[in-house]
Task: structure prediction
Amino acid sequence: MDLIKAAGAVLVLAVLSQAAVVTENGLPILWEKAPSELSQLPTVDGVIQINPWDYLQRMALYKMLINSTDPYMSSMGPGEKESPLWSLPLQLGWKLKSGRLTDPSPGSTSTCGLESSEPVCISPQSWYACVNYYMSVLPFLAAVQTGVVGKGEVQIQIQVPAEVAPDYCSSYTDCSTKHPDAMSKWQTFFQSLKQISESEDTDFYKKDQILGLMWAAEEESLLTAYTACSERQKLYSSPEVRFGQSWLRSAAYVAAAHFHANIERSEKFMAPLPSRVLQESDSPPNIADLSAEENHTLYIFSWMNSVNQLLGGSLVRLWRSAMCSAQAREKGQALLHDLVLDPKFPVSGLMSILTEMTTSC
Result:
């Protein structure tokens, strides 16, 4: 029983904190400086050349994705900040602000990835940049291929530094060959947007369908990144590795609930994330120069991962089983909100809540 209570406790994150900076003027970091059209990017012999190791160009991929899909997102709610894709550029901004886009190699003197660098670049050695590659370049190429981004036939070439060229795909054909499952799910997401948005379903069901397809693609991209980026994670301290793995695996909970990651919700959930890369000497939840919220988040993320392992993965499986319908997933989103933002939530009853939800499926 104590283990079950612990499983509930591990999901309690932190009350909203301002530890991590993920927005400026209510938008992702440097959003307004990022290009918003394909025509604003370099072109050689009719082929658009995209450099995703330039922070503004990688942010531009998200800008074009959100702008191009907004016409199909009316079921998410009124306004320009309701798209569930907003969480992606917000995460990229947090990585920049927290120093996670720099080269983690021991003894590295590179300024690449530092917010103060001009132009702001992204280190190809960064594990976080590697993971984000599969969450930015892959969906963008799929969106261009399906005609959601760009008009007519558009040729795109992704620039990859020579020293890491074998590690990253650089075109639609290349990415589809190397990562067929992830590319296929992103294409399905973009191909389905117009059809879903024009269907006779209610906005409630349209929203759930869109979120389901988006999270299926995001989870597949993360699964691909987990394998593809593993060598780069070895460059970090053990506390940072543990945090990174826990952070990656926490996606299972938000994905199963079809979490609506608009700007407001994403910012609330990301605010307590650690504002710097962890060092070997750091021992959460007792890191002196981090806030109480950051320390608590690190502690909880660690427990989320370790307790699920102790339970043989049954915590995640029970959560997924409970998210069995659109109505159940709506309850799951509310449950996530309470777990994260309400410190008074009776976490000892989490397992019974999930069991009851599963029984009523």
